[in-house]
Amino acid sequence: MRRNRQGGGRVRLAVACAATTAVLGPLVWLWQDSLLPEAYSVMDMGYADVGGGPPVAAAEHAAHSGGGASGHGRQEAAGRDVTELIADADLPADVAVTMVARKQRFTLPSGRAFEGYTLNGRSPGPVIKATKGQLVQVRLINESVPGGITLHWHGVDVPNAVDGVAGVTQDAVGVGKEFTYRFVADQAGTFWYHSHQMSHAQVRGGLLGALVVAPAPGKSAAEEDVTDVVALVHLYNGVRTVNGREGDVPVEAPPGARVRVRVINTEYGVMPAWVSGAPYRLAAVDGTEVNGPAPVQDKAVGVAAGGRTDIEVTMPEDGSPVRVHLGGPAGVVLGSKSYDAPAVSRPAATLDLLTYGTRAPLAFDPGKPDRRFAYDIGRRPGFLDGVPGLWWTVNGHLYPDVPMFHVSEGDVVRMRIVNNSGEAHPMHLHGHHAVVLSRDGVPATGSPWWVDSLEVGVEESYEIAFVAGNPGIWMDHCHNLPHASEGLTAHLMYEGVTTPFTVGGPDENEPE
Ligand SMILES: [Cu+2]
């Protein structure tokens, strides 16, 4: 019996060992396989997805590409380094700003102290104001932010070299160093800027600010006669602020005045905004004017994380104040004699941008795309850089084995974003604006709905389209920034464009 038992024990031990090896072996392999190198180029990430279009040769591989048909175009395109994709160097700066970044403790106007980051001694940083067509030049100096910083111009289709993504378009700007951004503000609208180095920590910590581009002069008197209000919403230690201030922001607006409130959601989730005391029009979304915006009443509008919404109000003739609620009771109060506008609860209904406004022709035909991409967001267990967890997937793949969307300049691109991950994701494509074609298969019938930050809810699907008209290597990621750092990050790469920068490396580039 004893011997038998021992024999049985040995067998059991052997079986257990074999089972352990069978289970652990693949796990160890998966773990090891997920480890990210100390430095890597995003060009080497994942796998090429040409979206059903012709193969696209990366510059350094151009010589090996089989297709010689478009050889001339390829030759000319070959070898463009992201650092060459800049604004005209001969253009003088129309708007020149110097920004000094610091890690420091500062106090909000309420007296509440916050341990974070400042630009020119404050957070949010200065509002940068430009007029359409002007060249904006921002000299960023890092005085004391450890780990380095950058500035990304969220929603502005800047030249790739100044997109501000550490490890993709530049190195993080270390302490004592500086970097100058130059771009032509060629679209009027509401934008913002923020760090894209360790962005999930630095944006929350306050390295951000608003950028407003006014329409070119010579507009109608009606268009110029609008009171402009920036309302940048940010949470400091969980405390909601508008322009860095807790509570209401009063703005003087006499009876009959037209006011445009430029709402910027710098947070990680969708934010409802609504108005009491007057109807409003949704004048613009993500820096693009809405066509034929009708008056809205008793409806909230959802502002995606990273997104902007311009709310236009005409002040009541009787002088009563108007409250623009931003995510809660507090917000912007417009008034003259009185600012006593009671807060009202959020309306049950939400404005649907799929049907809002009136149709207008597009400058391109999304019905004849050169490439069609899928961006299916899921979630599954696995390892991300050796850490076990439940991680986001793109088309079934875990970061960094995600698709690299390849395009050629001038391509018409359609992308279908499907969210089966159990959480909402505000998807942000750098360097481009995309138009929404449909949601859950229902075609858009309102004003062309142009986005750079699109809230994709749980179980939702969107079909969007854009023209690949801005060469570079562009992030296409979730703007719930912790999600991006958890692997919900892919890139759009133009034919022939290369980057000399690496994620990681001596500058410790860490874009998410
Ligand atoms: Cu997300």
Structural overview:
The protein has 3 domains: 39-85 and 362-504, Cupredoxins -  blue copper proteins (Immunoglobulin-like), CATH 2.60.40; 95-214, Cupredoxins -  blue copper proteins (Immunoglobulin-like, Sandwich), CATH 2.60.40.420; 221-350, Immunoglobulin-like (Sandwich), CATH 2.60.40. It is mainly β and 512 residues long. 47% of the residues are buried. The chain has 5 helices and 38 strands. The strands form 8 sheets. Strands 24, 25, 26, 28, 30, 31, 32 and 34 form an 8-stranded mixed sheet that branches. Strands 2-27-36-35-29-33 form a 6-stranded mixed sheet. A 6-stranded mixed sheet has the order 13-12-15-20-17-18. A hairpin with a 5-residue loop joins strand 4 and strand 5. The longest helix is centred in the N-terminal third of the chain and has 33 residues, at 2-34. Bound molecules: copper (II) ion. Residues 425, 478, 480, 483, 488 line the site of copper (II) ion.
How would you summarize this macromolecular structure in one to three sentences?
The protein has 3 domains: 39-85 and 362-504, Cupredoxins -  blue copper proteins (Immunoglobulin-like, Sandwich), CATH 2.60.40.420; 95-214, Immunoglobulin-like (Sandwich); 221-350, Immunoglobulin-like (Sandwich), CATH 2.60.40. It contains 5 helices and 38 strands.
